[in-house]
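Trying the structure run again after the queue cleared.
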Amino acid sequence: MSADGRFFCADAAQSRGDPLAGTAPYGSVWVLIEYPGGWPSNGFDGLALEPAAKSLVFAAAQAVRARILLIRRHGRRAPEGPRRWAVLHHDSAGADRQRWGTWSRDEDLAGIAGALAATGEPGLPPVVLVCTHGQHDTCCAVRGRPVGRALSERWPELVWECSHVGGDRFAANVVVAPDGVYYGGLDAATSVDTVAEHLADRVHGEHLRGYTDLFPPQQAVVAALLRRFGPAGRYGYTVVATAREHDHWRIRVLTRTPVPAAFDIEVRSHRTAPRRLTCRGLSMSSAVVYEVTSIGVVRSRPPGPAPRMG
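Done. Tokens:
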């Protein structure tokens, strides 16, 4: 609680020591729609757009499990000319692609449906998204806006404020797309350092929530390796096998970094006691935590997947 009795979910999570690793939502496609005005609490769903155009975008995004985010430049400054939209595709081999367009009328958003079905352009710089969605959660605004300002001053062409990305209690949240990398627990200073290192292809484990092409226990494993052995490139670690038995995983990871060639890693999960996880939500909810219990080194690169469990 703050001095005036208000509850802030990010303060509470920080006090509890809620782990970041393993909390990035799964996905590989993003739809970005520039909307500089106020955002409804439910983002794109709450916009008063022309119904046919809105339905077309929603259906096309849903078909490929794309996440729709509203974006704007820091300070809600009005765009010069038409507003922009983008479709970003992440490829697990690193061949990420983007397609950008513009819209002045709601009907122009129909171009997003075609872009979702197209290949897109490779080699474009990544997009840095900072969640500042105050109508969704207070901490996203309180903690996100200073981060948005700091990053926008450093990389004005790459950085956008965005609507809800998940994990309010980990604000400030930054997503680099289409790289598919979630960072959390950032402030103005740590965000600049984290993004600068990311753009130099050096991902650090300290603020990493996870890679969106991995599932939560796999995300926790990669974060643990980065914390133990230091930063590595976005594709420095590759998960090659995952076996599960109840709340226990055994995950094999290959590496291109100077550390040993492969690891067999044990992970256990457990649910926390019920607690308030967002500023606006009054209900109590539990969260799943993934704990890396051992990291075993495989001295020679193995020819096949990890052995079956059980």
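The first strand starts at residue 29 and ends at 34. Worth checking whether this holds up in the mutant runs.
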